[in-house]
Amino acid sequence: MILNQATDYAFRAVLYLSLLQPGEIVEAKVIAENQHIPLRFLLKILRSLAKAGIVKSYQGVGGGYALGKIPADITLKDVLEAVEGSIRINKCLIDPDYCNKQATEHCPVHHVLASIQQTISQEFDKYNFEQLKEYMKQNLK
Amino acid sequence: MILNQATDYAFRAVLYLSLLQPGEIVEAKVIAENQHIPLRFLLKILRSLAKAGIVKSYQGVGGGYALGKIPADITLKDVLEAVEGSIRINKCLIDPDYCNKQATEHCPVHHVLASIQQTISQEFDKYNFEQLKEYMKQNLK
DNA sequence: CAAAAACTATACCAAAATAGTATTGTTTAA
DNA sequence: TTAAACAATACTATTTTGGTATAGTTTTTG
After folding, report:
1. Residues 72..111 of B with a Cβ closer than 8 Å to A: which?
2. What is the largest CA-CA distance in chain B?
3. Are B58 and B25 in contact (CB under 8 A)?
4. pLDDT (0 to 100) of residue A136
5. B14: Cα separation from own chain's centroid
6. Mean pLDDT across chain B
7. Per-block average pLDDT, block size 10, for chain A (141 residues)?
8. Average pLDDT of the segment spanning B116-126
9. Residue B140: its chain A contacts at CB < 8 A?
10. In this complex, do A11 and B109 lie within 8 Å of one another by their Cβ atoms?
11. Nearest C-alpha of chain B: how many angstroms from A31?
């Protein structure tokens, strides 16, 4: 019931990229140093983000990473799911075999957890990185 | 970002007790068999629930467990927190040392996660075991 | 009053997940 | 053609999870 460290790093890396000029490319090393994230671990995370289209990677000399979309089109949910896979709060919600009574259909716990999971999912989808940028600007004043 | 197995078992154990006559005592073994939960593991979980006042334990011959409150006064959040401790979705929300920039106050990620955490907390608090009982009855018809 | 049936407490343990590292390879600009 | 960047895969140490074991306490009942 907690986000993992990789997701936390991913949020901060995407926020960092969101604060650059649109299209601006920056090396992973710069992000790592600025955000205090272990470089090799960050590279791994960035690959997940690239696969999801959240960042775009550029190989070779002068390469690095830039956002793959505008900040307004990237939600916390997008980043979370790129790193951890889709949100699920209980195993029985994915695999009926985990339902210890094999009674998914009639199980009120299952039913209610599915509803909570949906709310949580929507909640993470409510916030995009344009909003986080705005919040950041206001707090610097 | 997932409930652990103990919490899942706890939900189902409390639901089981909720369906009994008010005040009815039943041995852990009966719950374990009915709900397919490893007995010793269940006993450990029941101790957590007892500490939180959710169930009441009776030692000695003829002992066992009963609910410590009426089902309407037990929410999913109560059970969840009794088993896993309070809901927290990111380490930086508890311990500022985990904030990799030591900047809790100015961090938009922190700010937004705190808000999401509160929503999640409220969501689990929205459902009590009287409601789950009702849902169950309706589904048996 | 002792024996058995129940829970309590603490400690232990194996397996899985997490967080990160290492190695080797590929791409691309200069 | 070399060096600077990312890519892919595999490995590893630590922590967490899920569960078990052992020894002890409480309470009923014959």
Report:
1. 76, 80, 84, 87-92, 100-101, 105-106, 108-109, 111
2. 58
3. yes
4. 86
5. 8
6. 92
7. 93 97 97 96 98 98 97 98 95 73 74 96 98 86 54
8. 97
9. 106
10. yes
11. 12
pTM given for the model: 0.93
CB neighbour list of residue B26: distance below 8 Å, 6 or more residues apart: B17, B20, B64, B65, B66
Q: Say if CB B140 and CB A106 are below 8 A apart.
A: yes
The residue of B41, B78, B112 whose CB has the most chain A CBs within 10 angstroms, and thus the best one to mutate to test that interface, is B112
Neighbours of A139 (CB within 10 A): 13
Distance between A120 CA and the closest CA of chain B, angstroms: 6
Q: Residue B41 pLDDT more than 80?
A: yes
CB A94 within 8 A of CB A118: no
Half-sphere exposure (Cβ direction) of A113: Cα atoms closer than 13 Å: 23
pLDDT score of B134? 92
Q: Which residue from B1, B15, B80 is facing A84, i.e. has the nearest CB?
A: B1
Q: Which domains does chain B have, with CATH numbers?
A: 5-140 (1.10.10.10)
**Which region, left, alpha or beta, applies to residue B59 given φ > 0 means left and ψ of -120 to 50 means alpha?**
beta
Cβ-count burial of B35 within 10 angstroms (0-12 exposed, 13-18 middle, 19+ buried)? Answer: middle
Chain A residue at shortest CA distance from B98:
A5
CA-CA distance, B93 to B86, in Å (whole number)?
12
